[in-house]
Amino acid sequence: MDKIYSSNIKSVQFFPKGWNFSNPVLLLGEEDQLLLRFDDLTEEIRNYNYQIVHCDFNWQPSGLLESEYMTGFPENEIFDYAQSINTTVPYVNYQLLIPNDNVQLKVSGNYALIVYQDHHSDQPILVKRFYITENKVNIKANVRRGTFDTYPGEKQEISFRIEHPDYPISDSHNDIRVILRQNRFTHNEITSLRPRFSKNGILDYDYNQENNFLGGNEFRYFDLKTIKTTGENVSNISFHRPYYHATLMNDILRKGKPYYSYQDINGQFLPYYQEHPETSDTEADYIFVHFTFKIPKELAGGIHVYGELTNWTCNEESKMQWNPEQKHYELILLLKQGYYNYQYAYLPPNGTNPDLVEFEGSHFDTENDYHIFVYHTAPRSRYHRLISYRVVNSRKKN
Q: What is the pLDDT along the chain (398 residues), one digit of tens a residue?
C-alpha cells in the first residue's frame, strides 16, 4: 500500500510523465517513464536514495532476485531537486524518473518504489506502488447501471471479457487473477472474480452482482491556484504572519440529495501556481486550508477529509474535530497551491475501511474510472505477470 512515513513529506505524486492524472502504469519494453515528485518541507537538501522491489499479486515481495527483474544498481540516489523560491513555507522539491540510466525493468507485474534517507533502507520516508504491463491479451469492457439496482439507482456494473486467441492459458480458474478498482480506491476493490466460462479463447466475466460498485458521488473541489483572489469554493484568503490561510466554503451533507453533474478529477490534485505555471514545482506556496463540514451532531467514529490530498488514507492527519460551539466538524491541512478534489469519509468505531456514501450519497450517474488488472501465473512461473491493463469510464463509450 502507498505510504508516507514522514510528516515533512508533502504533495507526493507518481504518474506517467506528461499524464498527471493517469495511473502509474508502463508498458513493458516501451520508452515511457513514470515521474515521482514530492516536497520536503525544509530548507536543507537531503540525501535521498531509492530501491525498487518486485511484488506479487498481493503486494508481497515476489521472491525474484533483483537481477531477474531489473538491470542496473539495486540502490540509487535522487539527484533531481530544487529549493523553493519566494515562498512563506520553505521546501525542497524532488523528482525522479523511472526507468532511467541506472535502472531498467525486465518483467511485468507489481512494483514498489521505496524512498529513504542516507542509505537507511529500513526507514523509508515513502512507498509508492506502480505497474509494468504486457499487451498479451485484450480486455473488452463496459460500465452500466447495476442489473438488479432498485430505483433511482446507486450502483454501477462492470462487465468484461478477456480475449486471448493467441495466448495459452491452461487453467483459467486458478492461473488468472483479476483486480477491479474504482478510481484510486483500494478499500473496495474486487479481487475474487473467476471467469463464468471459458470458450474459444474468451474468458467471460459478465456477472450481475459480483462486479457491482456503489457509484458514489462526484468529488467536492476547490481552487487555490492563486492567492490574489478567491477561487471556486474558497471563502477567503488571509495572511497571518508568517503564513497564508484559506477558508473553504462550509460543506454540507449530500446524501439523499439529487445528483448534480460536473467534471471532477476523481479525487486527485494538481499543484499549480497561476502566476507562473511553468515553475509551479518550486514557486507554488503552501497554505493552511480550513475545512468545515456541518452536520447536526457529533458522531461516534471519525470523519476524514479523503482523497489524494491525504494520500487516500484515514489517519490522525486527515481526521476532523467536532466544534461544539459552531456545531460542525473542522480540520486544517497544509497544502500546496493548486486545484484539489476531496470527499468526506466516515470511519466507524474500530473500522478500517472508509465509507464514502454515508455523507456523499451514491448515484449510478456518477462519473468514475474503473481499472482492470489481469495477472497470469503460468505453470512453473515464479511470479505474477501483469498480462493486460485497461481503464474504462462510466460516462465514455469504451
A: 799 999 999 999 999 999 999 999 999 999 999 999 999 999 999 999 999 999 999 999 998 999 999 999 999 999 999 999 999 999 999 999 999 999 999 999 999 999 999 999 999 999 999 999 999 999 999 999 998 888 778 999 999 999 999 999 989 999 999 999 999 999 999 999 999 999 999 999 999 889 999 999 999 999 999 999 999 999 999 999 999 999 999 999 999 999 999 999 999 999 999 999 999 999 999 999 999 999 999 999 999 999 999 999 999 999 999 999 999 999 999 999 999 999 999 999 988 999 999 999 999 999 999 999 999 998 888 899 999 999 999 988 76
The domain total for the chain is: 3
Q: How many CB atoms neighbour CB 343 within 10 A? A: 22
Beta carbons within 10 angstroms of residue 244's beta carbon: 20
Percentages helix, strand, coil for the chain (3-state, rounded to 5) are: 5, 45, 50
Q: Closest Cα to residue 264, out of 325, 165, 341, 202?
A: 341
Q: What pTM does this model have?
A: 0.95
Q: Would 262 be classed as within a structural domain?
A: yes
**Residue 398: inside a domain:** no
Tell whether 266 and 331 lie within a shared domain: yes
Q: Which domain holds residue 342?
A: 220-360
Q: Assess whether 312 and 348 both reside in one domain.
A: yes
Q: Any idea what the CATH number is for the domain that residue 201 is in?
A: 2.60.40
